[in-house]
Task: structure prediction
Amino acid sequence: MTRLLPSLCLLVSLLSPAGAQDRLSGKTFATRAVVMARHGMACTSHPLSTQAAIDVLRSGGNAIDAAIAANAMEGLVEPHVNGIGGDLFAIVWDAKTKKLYGLNASGRSPYSLTLAEFQKRGLTHIPADGPLPVSVPGCVDGWFSLHKRFGKKPMPELLAHAIRYAREGYPVHDEAAFYWPGMLARFGKYPNVLTTYAPAGAAPKRGDLFRNPALANTLEKIATGGRDAFYKGEIAQTIDVFMKKMGGFLTAKDLADHTSEWVEPVSTNYRGYDVWELPPNSQGIATLQMLNLLEGYDFSQIPWGSADHIHRFVEAKKLAFEDRAKYYADPAFVTIPVQELISKPYAASRRKLIDLNRAASRVEAGNPALKQGDTIYLTVADDEGNMVSLIQSNYRGFGSGMVPDGLGFTLQDRGELYSLTEGQNNTYAPHKRPFQTIIPAFVTKDGQPFMSFGVMGGSFQPLGHVEIIMNMIDYGMNPQEAGDAPRIDHQGSSEPTGERMTDAGQITLESGFPYETIRDLMRRGHRVGYGLGSYGGYQAIMYDAKNHVYHGATESRKDGQAAGF
Result:
């Protein structure tokens, strides 16, 4: 997690304008033009992943095939944020049925690990690394679930790019090189970490070649043996033996019993656009709750980046996140009033709690039922009109630090996100899915696809989704400008892991907001500071149905690429 620096002296850094030098047109903060193409588009956070997707599209694969290929490559080239030891969520627009499909490919907790075990150890929170936060990895089953329903090309072809680069090596890019030494310092005490991620004895530097032959072997077994090779075969047994050796609880039975779930995406209409998210156990509906709250304000009369804009945004976030902390969890264990939470009447009642002149220091979750009684994101589109919005993560960078013998990947620490307080929706239980931060998004207009997009970054993701939507719909930006615009974050809300909001929290702003805005926010009771690297990452494909043209955008804060043909 990024450490926030609230010192007011750091506000000086916010005064410098965020710009992309002297562009001929468009917003000054845009780093490049939108990429446009008709036959296919791929936007990922690494150029090699984008090229893998484009190769699959050009060779006759569809968007779903290409997304799988890109995700497999991402696990190799960006191991600090994702991999086959983590979970996956996706929203697919199927051109044949003209319908959205949602996939929840998140894993569950071990059968043999109980709440009493944590209590016996005197823990009030699940640790971020080691064997205890490890839950079943859902990524590989997610690939095969997507492929079975929508795929065209054989899986060995789709994984071939990642397998080849894992054997031959690839040059490490800037962002991964930045985080790699920290991973070794934190996890080097665990078996297989140094041999897998520092085979030369030190973290690879920018431009150094990195090879992961163990991951290549694992991907080959998955390509030829299918999902059962991972969940029921040799790989599952290796994970079982390793976790027992480490004092962990994940077993072969946990892996064998894993299934993904097809779910119905849910939506709200924001000024004529239907914004789609996946229901809990993910946090996607926080985006919809925020949009419903913000729709009550006329942003055509509120300048972008003004204190009025940011104050309304942050106060809406506080209200939505209070519900997020109370309600969001695995729906197989608790009843979650999703439709009530994302309803317009509920938003109208909650909006009354926003004081336009003062930052709230404490808010309570609503009761909508009374009406009744660190991640990667990628998106791909193809010539048939199929579009995929896919997000995948190990949760914190490099996951739990648990690297099973000879497999070449890290198991996730997503289990850190349970609460250990008894009686809450998200309280830990065996074979339960944890609260999830990763959320893909999709936008339709008049029943047709408009945009596939996502923003990475833990709890920031709903904020990032709302900012992209507002930037485009309220402030008229194109997809690239919407992602490059300076971002707003807020920390300090109540959390599904049990923490409670006790003060106004802290706003952090990227460079580019005027000091007048900061000064006004402080007068309203906000603490304002600067957060380094805490604003996520973004990819998007917008679709122009009239001309059948895709408009691709990539994340200026990452090492990504948007490409089409």
Summary: The first strand starts at residue 35 and ends at 37.
